[in-house]
Amino acid sequence: MTVGLTVTHRRYVTYADAHYAGNLVNGAYVLDLFGDVGTEASIRMDGDEGLLASYSDVQFRAPVRAGDVIEVTATVTAVGRRSRELRFEAQVVCRADPARGDSAATVLTEPIVVVTATGTVVVPAEPIGLR
Question: How far apart are the C-alpha atoms of 63 and 25, rounded to whole Å?
Fold first, then answer.
């Protein structure tokens, strides 16, 4: 079990994911991605998907829009007997640029941090990786 283990996923945000004016995506979309990256971190650490038991300090810092490419990272910050604390961060790394054309997009020179959170994953009493 390793503090500092980091797992990253990237995903294109489709226009079907937008729910609000301005092609905005709801915050639950990113929390769902945090669950996915947290699951992979649990598998890598414990050989078990674990259960994402809680989030704390969720900060919605900037909007996520349809046409974004979002990078989501989970980093293990603490390991208990059955719990693991993860730091989550989501960044927009590419953004649609409709002013240049319907399908135009820009790779951002500086990613935009859109959501951060802390989460707690709980694993079974005897994770497969420890048996």
Answer: 7
Helix (H) or strand (E) holding 37: helix 27-46
Does pLDDT of 125 surpass 90?
A: no
Model pLDDT for residues 31-78, shown as the tens digit of each residue: 999 999 999 999 999 899 999 999 999 999 999 999 999 999 999 999
Phi, psi dihedral angles at 40 (to 5 degrees): -65, -40
- Asked if residues 23 and 14 have their Cβ atoms less than 8 Å apart, the reply is no
Q: What is the pLDDT of residue 1?
A: 55
With the CA atoms of 14, 51, 88 and 75 taken in that order, what torsion angle do they form, in degrees rounded to the nearest 10? Answer: -120
- Structure tokens that stand for 92 in this block: 């927009």
Neighbours of 21 (CB within 10 A): 6
Q: How far apart are CA 73 and CA 89, in angstroms?
A: 5
- pLDDT of 88 over the 90 cut: yes
C-beta atoms surrounding 63 within 10 Å:
15
